[in-house]
Design a protein that fits this description.
Rossmann fold, six-stranded mixed beta sheet, membrane, alpha+beta, Membrane protein 6-pyruvoyl-tetrahydropterin synthase-related domain-containing protein, 25 strands
Length: 835
């Protein structure tokens, strides 16, 4: 045996391994240095971009941007005062828990940046720069992972200029979605690695990034969770092992629960409370024609139009059709195209019937579709360089056209600001901006932070759905939109608005507007080409006392209040939640979309009330087949108009249905006493629309209250006057009384010389009475004592923290078990990414 030869063999082997290890270290060092170099280049592009954006001015023009800046600024004020949370804000919506119903990250990020800049507009510029860098770095890391640095850098720079990302940032001003779009490359990278590498850090990072996205938007993260689940299902169809992907989806779900410390107390029951009509409206507003979505021309006529990007669509189709090799990479583009198809308005009829369809707004995750297409190109190993150059060129050209159209801030809006300054100068309690949100969130921000030396409280704000007075806001906006100015002014007084700014192009009859304003006591004090300002002649803080002659109970009962301002909307939809004595205070009761817990009790109550001489009107449109007091209704669809219409035994001419409701769904009455005086003739059938149970208890059909509300038809109005025994367009007996309102941290103190005063403070569910008593009236505090002290609480905090802690524990246990093999996760060879 030649010992020297064996020694030389082992020596050479050790040297070879050392050289290999040294080469790997050098390669790693080179990759890190390249990553740092490209990161510096990315930052330089970000700085150049923000300078270009601000070349005209640094004032944002997105419809929602100033709403985010307001919350960020007021949170910054809290930081300055040594507080890290806003429990209550008196400025918006007659008082609101500003962060309730809101995910916190955008506001805390803006507040933290503002600590450094002390200028909210500079803060917004820094925010844009950070979004550019963070989003771009995600694709840099993809380039590092795939060892394709140049393409990763290009996609990182391109990511900011994606047409959808630009629209969300500049036009919508939806900063929650902007942050999520910046995080999407990280989400896809971590998910991709988690499904292919059995590493503890990947599983934990996935849960953490899902948690971060949850704290930006719960609705979007639920769509992301659904997308990850579908990805797992599609991979299973390809006969890969589903078990691991199931646990990855489970870790994603736990990532959502990880954010429970905030979401449980902040969102409460607000996440799933959308009614069906709101869901359909939301789906309709966020669904588009597929051809329009990829048309590169429409954006030149409307810079705010939804544009997926023709170039991105074509690149996605190209990769689906021509990518060879690994099917899982090709499927990424396929999934992106599927998301794009999901934005089509063709699917509204399908989506609206799916449970929780409010979470299936595919246009909100457009950037995920784009990112999937870009990642598939990054992972396409054998794609020719010339094709890569062509793809990059067409993607960049398409994106830069959009940037040239909308990628800018604006100059200071002098015209609107002058009107806001004047309104703020004369206001003594609250300002109402009646613009149907056409001015965006700017007025809501400016009245707090823009007017020098004064901050004005407001009836409106931004993100009205999270406001406790959302029903009041909807009623005022509906009245403005449909020219019901009398009730509009009255309800503004009830909300404490002594000053109103009305956008002029929303008004159809200025003389009638002035007449209604004067009837309510408002005086016109200012007018220019864009706005009118009215002032109620009262000084100091005030509440109102009011006597309504009618009450409207039920989901749709408010429709009658527009033509009959002397009706108030009841705070409860269940008849038997009221007492006979409560309802006996009114001259008329109108029921539409009402409910009851005990049918017999509800029937007996209405009979007893009607026998006292109080008029009770039951709108039967939602009554259905079930009899109520022996009367039921049957649905019918009428086209164009009611046809032959008889009222009090005589044929009358009633108007046609509106253009957008030519097929009108309504109900006619069955059962009870026959009444041959009030009916319509349809196909030789006599269908009754008004029946009397007794002299004062009336059933009304044909959806006449709604028809009258949307058409202002004279005959329909006369029918309602007959049914309710009330005159239309009569104001309630309302008087303004001075009160004293003080705020101290999270306490509200009210003093009044009178009881039963409606205080223009929203009655929040988180209020805890310390002294005195109050009831809720139209979502406002109805004072029942001369002194009232209320404390704003923050319920469900401990429950949220507990859920978060349990989620942390489960994430660690499941991740460790997957790494240690306690949870089996078989990987096929073709799932490993060759680097």
């Amino acid at each position: 045996m030649n010992i020297d030869k064996d020694v030389n063999y082992f020596t050479r082997g050790n040297a070879s391994r050392k050289d290999m290890l040294k080469d790997k270290k050098q390669q790693y060092k080179n990759k890190v240095l390249t990553l740092i170099l490209y990161f510096v280049i990315l930052c330089m592009f970000a700085i150049i971009t923000i300078l270009t954006i601000n070349k005209i001015g640094n004032y944002p023009w997105g419809s929602e941007t100033f709403g985010y800046l307001y919350k960020g600024n007021i949170l910054y004020d809290s930081f300055i005062n040594g507080e890290s949370f806003i429990s209550y804000d008196i400025n918006w919506y007659n008082g609101t828990q500003l962060l309730k119903g809101s995910e916190p990250i955008p506001y805390y990020l803006l507040a933290l940046i503002n600590l450094l800049t002390n200028d909210i507009y500079v803060t917004f510029s820094v925010f844009i720069t950070l979004v550019f860098i963070v989003g771009g770095t995600g694709f840099l890391l993809w380039g590092y992972y795939c060892n394709r640095f140049k393409l990763g850098l290009f996609f990182g720079i391109l990511w900011f200029f994606i047409p959808n990302n630009l629209r969300v940032l500049f036009s919508e001003g939806n900063l929650q979605l902007v942050i999520i779009n910046a995080l999407i490359p990280y989400l896809l990278l971590i998910y991709y690695k988690a499904t292919r590498e059995n590493k503890f850090k990947n599983y934990v990072f996935l849960s953490v990034i899902i948690c971060i996205i949850s704290l930006n938007s719960m609705h979007i993260v639920i769509m992301i969770l659904l997308a990850l689940f579908l990805l797992a299902v599609f991979d299973t169809i390809r006969k890969t092992y589903f078990g691991k992907k199931f646990f990855i989806v489970l870790l994603s779900l736990l990532g959502i629960l990880l954010s429970a410390f905030w979401l449980v107390p902040a969102l409460g029951e607000g996440l799933l409370n959308s009614n069906k009509s709101e869901v359909i409206q939301k789906l309709t507003q966020n669904s588009y024609s597929l051809l329009d979505s990829i048309s590169p021309v429409l954006r030149f006529y409307n810079v705010e139009v939804y544009y997926f990007g023709l170039s991105f669509f074509l690149v996605g189709i190209f990769s689906v059709l021509f990518m060879n090799g690994r099917r899982d990479i090709k499927n990424l583009s396929f999934y992106g195209i599927l998301i794009f198809i999901g934005t089509s308005n063709v699917f509204i009829k399908v989506l609206k019937n799916i449970p929780f369809s409010e979470f299936l707004i595919f246009s909100k995750v457009t950037s995920i579709a784009i990112a999937l297409i870009l990642v598939s190109i990054l992972l396409w190993r054998n794609l020719r360089k010339v094709l890569i150059v062509i793809i990059c060129f067409i993607l960049l050209s398409d994106s830069m056209l959009t940037f040239d159209l909308i990628g800018h801030n604006r100059e200071f809006p002098e015209g609107l600001v002058y009107s806001l300054d004047y309104a703020s100068e004369i206001a003594t309690q609250r300002i109402g901006i009646l613009d149907l949100s056409q001015y965006g969130a700017l007025p809501s921000y400016y009245l707090k932070y823009g007017v020098k030396g004064k901050s004005s409280n407001q009836v409106f704000g931004w993100q009205w759905k999270s406001a406790n007075t959302s029903e009041n806001i909807v009623m005022i906006n509906t009245a403005l939109e449909n020219n019901y100015y009398l009730v509009m002014f009255d309800r503004c007084i009830q909300l404490g608005a002594d000053t109103l700014l009305i956008k002029k192009d929303l008004i159809n009859d200025f003389n009638y507007l002035d007449e209604c304003a004067n009837q309510n006591g408002y005086i016109k004090v200012y007018e220019d080409t864009n706005d009118i300002i009215y002032k109620y002649p009262i000084e100091g803080t005030f509440g109102t006392t009011v006597k309504f002659d009618g009450i409207a109970i039920g989901k749709y009962a408010e429709n009658i209040c527009y033509s009959f301002p002397n009706f108030t909307k009841g705070d409860k939809d269940y008849i038997d939640d009221y007492t006979v004595s409560e309802l006996s205070e009114f001259k008329a009761i109108f029921l539409s979309g009402f409910k009851y817990r005990d049918k017999k009790k509800a029937e007996d109550m209405l009979k007893e009330i009607s026998e006292k001489g109080i008029r009770v009107v039951v709108d039967s449109n939602e009554l259905g087949d079930e009899e109520f007091l022996g009367i039921s209704s049957k649905k019918i669809d009428l086209e164009d108009n009611y046809g032959e219409f008889y009222f009090k035994g005589e044929r009358v001419k009633i108007g046609d249905f509106p253009e957008d409701e030519k097929i009108f769904r309504c109900s006619y009455l069955l059962g009870g006493k026959d009444d041959n005086n009030n009916y319509i003739n349809v196909d030789t059938r006599m269908l009754e629309y008004m029946k009397y149970y007794n002299e004062n208890l009336v059933f009304l059909g044909l959806n006449i209250p709604y028809f009258e509300m949307i058409t202002k038809d004279d005959v329909a109005l006369e029918i309602l006057e007959e049914a309710t025994n009330m005159e239309s367009y009569i104001l309630p007996d309302r008087k303004c009384v001075n009160i004293q309102i003080d705020f101290e941290s999270n306490r509200i103190m009210v003093n009044s010389e009178n009881n039963d005063v409606i205080v223009p403070i929203a009655a929040l569910s988180s209020f805890e009475t310390i002294e005195g008593s109050y009831q809720v009236f139209n979502n406002l505090v109805n004072l029942k004592s001369k002194e009232l002290v209320i404390e704003v609480t923050y319920p469900k905090l401990s429950a949220g923290i507990t859920i978060s802690l349990i989620s942390v524990l489960l994430i660690l246990i499941i991740s460790k078990s997957m790494v240690n093999g306690r949870i089996k996760s078989y990987l096929t060879n073709n799932e490993e990414l060759s680097k």
